[in-house]
Design a protein that fits this description.
Elements: E1 3-7, E2 9-12, E3 17-23, E4 32-38, E5 45-51, E6 56-58, E7 66-71, E8 76-81, E9 90-98, E10 101-104, E11 108-113
Parallel strand pairs: 2-11
Antiparallel strand pairs: 1-3, 3-8, 4-5, 4-9, 5-6, 7-8, 9-10, 9-11
Length: 114
């Protein structure tokens, strides 16, 4: 399984960015797909994830600002980030779970300036 991520970049506080992750096989093969992030000097943390059935889970710090969506036919999971804050600055990683195994995409950087 390979995950290819794109998006991210730079934004001023209050702006928006979008991440997109494309899997090498059908999204139906993944029980969960999601996004994690790792800020400077911090541990990697869950940002948002969505089950095969479409139920999303969000970290409290992003709830109401970020939206996760997946399209199993297109093999994608996307993260729309609105109202960005400097504390959202991090490397963002796409993640997918298949039969208990976690797969990771490469990190994409997000920098938010105040």
């Amino acid at each position: 399984v390979q995950l290819q991520a794109s998006g991210g970049g730079w934004s001023q506080a209050g702006g928006s960015l979008r991440h997109l992750c494309v899997a090498s096989e059908s999204g139906y093969n993944f029980a969960e797909m999601g996004w994690y992030r790792q800020g400077p000097g911090k541990q990697r943390e869950l940002v948002a994830q969505v089950t095969r059935g479409g139920s999303p889970t969000y970290a409290g710090s992003v709830r109401g600002r970020f939206t996760i969506s997946r399209n199993d036919i297109q093999r994608t999971v996307a993260l729309q980030m609105n109202d960005l804050r400097p504390e959202d600055t991090a490397a963002y990683y796409c993640n997918a779970v298949q039969r208990g195994t976690l797969f990771w995409g490469p990190g994409t950087l997000v920098t938010v300036s105040s």
